[in-house]
Write a structure and sequence with these properties.
By secondary structure, this protein is mainly alpha-helical. It has helices at about 5-15, 20-25, 30-40, 45-55, 60. Helices cover about 65% and strands about 0% of the residues. The protein is globular and about 30 Å long.
């Protein structure tokens, strides 16, 4: 599992939010969130921490990729 897919999974499981809502809550652009989830944009450690805080999880949880 890649980071973007993990972010999408946790966004839906933890909050049932759209990309638009996650972007609004985090202060990031929706196009940026979309790009990260699709694997076409890189994400900084600062933004990983920001998204984790918004999703009420630890940053490490975003970096744990369960077996598919």
């Amino acid at each position: 599992m890649k980071f973007g897919k993990r972010l999408c999974q946790l966004r839906k499981e933890k909050k049932s939010w759209s990309q638009e809502r996650l972007a609004l809550e985090s202060g990031l652009a929706r196009s940026y969130v979309s790009g990260v989830e699709r694997g076409v944009r890189n994400i900084s450690l600062r933004n990983i921490c920001k998204l984790a805080e918004i999703l009420e999880i630890s940053p490490a949880e975003l970096l744990i990729f369960p077996d598919e």
